[in-house]
Amino acid sequence: MNPPSALFLVAMKKLLDLTHIIAAHPSLAALAGALEAPGVRLRIAPLISAGRVPTIAALAQHYTAPILFITGSTDSALRAAEDARLWTEPQRVLLFPAADVMPYEHMAPSDDALSRRLGVLQQLQAWSSSQNNGQSPIIICSVKALLQPTLMPDDFVYATTKLRIGQRIEQEELLRRWVELGYRVAATVEAATDVSRRGDIIDIWPPAAPQPLRIEWFGDEIDSLRAFDPISQRSEQRSEEATIGPASELALWRRELALQRIQAVDTSMLREEARREWEASLTRIELGDSFDGLSFYAPFFRKTGSEVRGQGQATEVH
Questions:
Q1: Are the CB atoms for 224 and 167 separated by under 8 Å?
Q2: Strands (DSSP E) found in the chain
Q3: Which of 152, 211, 215, 293 is most buried (CB neighbours < 10 A)?
Q4: Is the pTM of this model over 0.85?
Q5: What is the mean pLDDT of residues 48-55?
Q6: pLDDT single digits (tens) 213-265
Q7: CB 249 within 8 A of CB 296
């Protein structure tokens, strides 16, 4: 990719300056102050389409919490994200994409869609765990993306493992945990959600990471953490710590609860072929398989309201 031209950088600087001018307008400052009140809901007169992204960018200059900007279509979300990166600092704009499958379609979302969706959740979690230090993110998504099931915040924390050099942890414990979370055991890590073990080395590719991670042990102690090239399998950059996020947007560790709910569904009115397909999927869930169409059963893996209220601190791996 070619670096941006000097003219482009100058134009972008002028747009950022204009964002600060808009943010300083008394009406917008008053709106930002009103939004800070807990539980407030405001209806604002419609803006022309060209003014929406600059207004959101200006509000972000005041607002200390994440801003969610919802658009009517996937294409409009993409355009809004591109525009927002011109009106504010590009790194704070997060595009939450829609999975490339239709509702109730028995297909798995692409690895790219899963990676980008989980990547946004991971950045939000990192911002939250940093005690809200730094710039609050602006999340842009379509209605379709917002309606598609994903992990709740405490589920995302539970499914995230943080490792550091010198940490003592058993390899078997980690492998069991990652398989429970949906990672696929493979001979060689070549795709996202793959995990493999060779002696004192575990390779794993978190979907939200651009490259897989190689973890080397010396006894029960982590000795090395390195990203590596999945094609050449050669280790590259060394890290002092690493974060391995979830492999799926489903809480797969809640499989037994999901099975109980699925088995309670009355299928007596289904056609014979539909019932056979339902039963085959039930068997695959019992076996712990990841298959096309598993996301169709996402609601069965979610917690009820009482379970959400009773959730304690996320489990940590030591």
A1: no
A2: 67-71, 93-96, 138-142, 161-164, 184-185, 194-198, 201-204, 213-218, 221-228, 235-238, 241-244
A3: 215
A4: no
A5: 87
A6: 999 999 889 999 999 998 888 888 889 999 999 999 999 999 999 999 999 99
A7: no
pLDDT tens string 10-33: 566 778 888 888 888 888 888 888
Name which of 141-145, 176-180, 230-234, 240-244 the model is least confident about: 230-234
Asked if residues 200 and 218 have their Cβ atoms less than 8 Å apart, the reply is yes
Domain residue ranges of the chain, discontinuous segments joined by +: 16-27+49-148, 156-244, 252-301
Q: In terms of Cα–Cα distance, which of 228, 181, 227, 219 is closest to 200?
A: 219
Compute the 3-state secondary structure of the chain and give helix, strand, coil in percent, each to the nearest 5: 45, 15, 40
Residue type at position 179: V
Q: Under a CB-based contact definition with an 8 Å cutoff, are residues 88 and 54 in contact?
A: no
Residue 102: alpha-carbon gap to chain centroid: 19
Nearest to 74 by CA among 157, 143, 159, 5: 143
| Count of all residues that appear for the chain in the document | 318
Q: What topology does CATH give the domain 16-27+49-148?
A: Rossmann fold (3.40.50)
* CA 288 remoteness from chain centre: 22
The pair of structure tokens assigned to 194 is 């793959």
Domain 156-244, what fold? Penicillin-binding protein 1b fold (3.30.2060)
Phi, psi of 220 (to 5 degrees): -100, 10
> pLDDT: is 8 or 233 the higher one?
233
Chain mean pLDDT for the chain: 85
Which residues have C-beta within 8 Å of that of residue 183, sequence separation ≥ 6? 193, 194, 195, 204, 247
Tell me the backbone φ, ψ of residue 184, rounded to 5 degrees: -100, 125
Q: What is the pLDDT of residue 308?
A: 43
